[in-house]
Amino acid sequence: MPIQRLAPDLVAKIAAGEVIERPASVVKELLENALDAGATQVGIEVTQGGLGLIRVRDNGCGIPRDELSLAFERHATSKLLSESDLTQVASLGFRGEALPSIAAVADVEIVSRPAEASGGAYLKLQNGAVVASGPRGAPLGTTVTARGLFRRQSARLKFLRSPSSEAGHIAAVVSHYALAYAEVAFTLRLDGRLSLQTPGSGDPREAMLAVYGVPVASAMLPLPNSEGDEYANVSGLVSPPGLTRANRTYISLFINRRWVRSRTLTFAVEEAYRGLLMSGRFPIAVLEIMVPPEEIDVNVHPTKAEVRLRREREVFAILQRRVRRALIDQAPAPQGGAAAWTAVPGAAPRPVPTVPPTHGRHLASSRPTDRRATPTGASEPPEAAPLLSRLPLLRAVGQVGATYVVAEGPEGMYLIDQHAAHERILYERLLSKPAGQAEVQGFLQPVPVDLAPHQEQALRALAEALTEQGFSVEPFGGRTYLLRAAPVLLSGQDAGRALGELLDILAREDGPADPRERVAASLACHAAIRAGQTLNQEEMRELVKQLEETQMPHTCPHGRPTMIHLSADALAKEFKRR
Ligand code: ADP
Ligand code: MG
Description:
Number of domains: 3
CATH architecture of the largest domain: 2-Layer Sandwich
Shape: globular
Number of helices: 19
Strand content: 15-25%
Distance between the termini: 78 Å
Strand order of the largest sheet: 7-6-5-8-3-2-9-10
Bound molecules: adenosine-5'-diphosphate, magnesium ion
């Protein structure tokens, strides 16, 4: 279908949005265009986290020369013609917004040659306007280059993280697509370094190997072929219960080949593992859900990250059932296969976490801690009283829900989030050590660690700060690294796994910007006692005492509260003693 302008009434029905939030959005849109064009090879080149250059090359169908400039007009697309098409979108793009949106925030050059054309053509745009065009010799397919992204949008630039952190986002986006499009050969180069290369063989396990490495890829279980009589067809790979991660980012979901973020469906996958995983652990999964196109509304989210399923409950049930089936039929006994790689730390000096760390913090942060007490009617809940910057002497009284320590002080009652409090303690302790004096534990045998692209990016970005905290990591070819030493704080844990999880935390958005503080915060988060862990009286006393000694006892390194305070006054009011 040629590129055409959408009729105004159809434009009005399209959920518009600012598509380009960060460099990874440009990569995502260009990747989607390449896949929509039927490419079997896609090369992505990025410098300075995308702020220097983003180039995506594909061998897809190309764009006819006389349509090139139309491709950069808003709401011009070859993928949608009428309103009825909008209910049956089979392509990743459909709004005709990506190219003009990119051209509005970067200098863009496009070179394209469709199969039937004898030569290629190019177009150069600045400030969204064409400044040069003409014929250009080119291989089949399309190459789009975006330079100087956000250079003219200084406000947007300020919101971005460091180039290496943006490169991590880009690596994550490309990884997701590489996993779902195993028949496409992807290459990702970050500042000239080959970060990811998939064979494009069509075998999902080979794509998995390229992204997550041998130990993961070889352990993954395929979903059995669907019986074909179900409303939704689900296929993909899921990890056996012995192979887990500390967060949900390794659950990749695709509906009709579109990468989607769906809390509901992610939960369906988690539900399939019910009783098989320790809480706080999550599976690795790449799952492709196929439903009839009219059963899914892709037009609900500006960046197309969310979709609406007409019969979501049914899809939920099928997804859960099919994953569960794969696990029950094929999962090896816990000791087998990948267990050696992911073994639960045996000699851990403290019990294994049972609840994800964020869980505890969530509960605590749902109550205000620093608002002034206001005169309240007796029936309103008491407001937390103001807190001094240092803590008074406290006496630990007991524990609630294996998550909060109840303490008493001269000014009333304190409910302390044990994980957040311990994080604060460890964080300050780590930062108090002068550079080069971290307590380090060396290994007799170096531990090989396979990193995912986003983890490798975090490792490279924060190498110096990680070394300073006691990590000794060296490259061993590809994305395999050798871990020769790790901070003593992690002793007793599977060091390779701990490094991977730490890098996951470091790749996330939150946390301090300074590299040294950032690494210390993530190390503290990883090593701190978890919510759900029972503490004895002595441990509680110690926790409270050490918290009293910190500089900033009221917040964890990520800024979440470590405690809530109920003043003696507020208590008396609650009980109508005054
Ligand atoms: P959309 O993908 O929503 O149609 P875009 O702005 O991303 O909107 O692209 C506009 C049009 O340009 C597409 O409909 C398609 O016809 C063409 N196009 C863009 N990128 C490519 C590509 N890599 N290969 C072939 N055609 C492309
Ligand atoms: Mg598009």
